[in-house]
């Protein structure tokens, strides 16, 4: 899967750090592609049935929200954090039962999505997937 890596100028404010993973991996188009692939996998691959079951029937809000969260998390625009003050990944998921199995499914689906989109530099993309996977697995209970 190929994604145009050149982000529109308005997504790179002058104060942005061009070395941040968000910008080095290709900016908003790449993060949106990763998240869309992630949710496509969740909807289409039976390996992620349990993970899909804990989400709302309509994934459109998540398809819009997750790339914005990941953008800020990876050093890009912080719009999601500004719109959700005091929220973090842990607080958002606290009301849900995230078992070790569903956490593992999330981690695997995200790592597959990143690999399928294949942003460059590849080592940075792989590291991002590993960190996100570790974070997801750390939320698994029981």
Give a description of the structure.
- This protein has 142 residues and is an all-alpha fold.
- The chain is 61% helix and 0% strand.
- The protein has helices spanning 21-24, 28-44, 49-53, 60-73, 79-83, 89-93, 100-117, 122-139.
- It is globular.
- The termini are far apart.
Short overview:
Helix content is 61%, strand content 0%.
Number of helices, where a helix is a run of at least 4 consecutive DSSP H or I residues: 8
Q: Globular, elongated, flat, extended or rod-shaped: what is the shape? A: globular
* Strand proportion: under 5%
The averaged pLDDT comes out at 90
Structural class designation:
mainly alpha
Largest sheet: none
How are helices and strands ordered from N to C?
HHHHHHHH
Q: How far is the first residue's CA from the last residue's CA?
A: 36 Å
Whole-number radius of gyration?
Answer: 15 Å
Low-confidence stretches: 5-13
Number of strands: 0
| Proportion in helices | 55-70%
């Amino acid at each position: 899967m190929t994604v145009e890596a050149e982000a529109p100028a308005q997504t790179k404010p002058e104060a942005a750090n061009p070395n941040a993973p968000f910008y080095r991996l290709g900016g908003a188009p790449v993060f949106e592609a990763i998240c869309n692939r992630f949710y496509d996998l969740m909807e289409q691959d039976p390996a992620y049935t349990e993970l899909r079951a804990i989400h709302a029937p309509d994934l459109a809000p998540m398809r819009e929200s997750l790339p914005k969260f990941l953008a800020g998390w990876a050093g890009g625009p912080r719009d999601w954090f500004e719109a959700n003050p005091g929220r973090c990944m842990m607080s958002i998921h606290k009301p849900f039962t995230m078992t070790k199995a569903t956490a593992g499914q999330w981690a695997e689906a995200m790592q597959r999505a990143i690999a399928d989109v294949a942003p460059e530099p590849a080592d940075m993309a792989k590291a991002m997937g590993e960190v996100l996977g570790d974070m997801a697995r750390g939320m698994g209970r029981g």
